[in-house]
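Notes to self, Glyoxalase/bleomycin resistance protein/dioxygenase:
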Amino acid sequence: MNLNQVTIPSLDVSTSISFYKKLGLHLIVESLPHYARFECVEGDATFSIHLVDALPDNNSVYVYFETEKLDKEVERLINEGLQFDLLPTDQRWLWREAKLKDPDGNQIILYFAGDNRKNPPWRIN
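result:
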């Protein structure tokens, strides 16, 4: 089994499209006002947004995008006007992460983990 795509909720798909295009995702389906799908720059996964009447009541959506050039990418996005809740920081789980929210409040984590993503020292064999 392979992860094909992740879909997140949005109150305004058009606004979300602009945000995710700034992140660098490539828009491949635009069915406004209800739906949009993107390709990730690397790999085969896709990412989509669908219109909802109300967002979840809690912080239940976390989306991680990995990039080897994390610090440079965060700098680029700050120059594009995006605000980060956490600038690139080395975490105890051996990932370097930066955090921001999309227009709907979904938590977006840009990170770099390298081999530690799937093979941390505490991996179960």
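- The chain has a mean pLDDT of 95.
- The beta strands are 5-10, 26-31, 35-39, 46-51, 62-66, 86-90, 96-101, 107-112.
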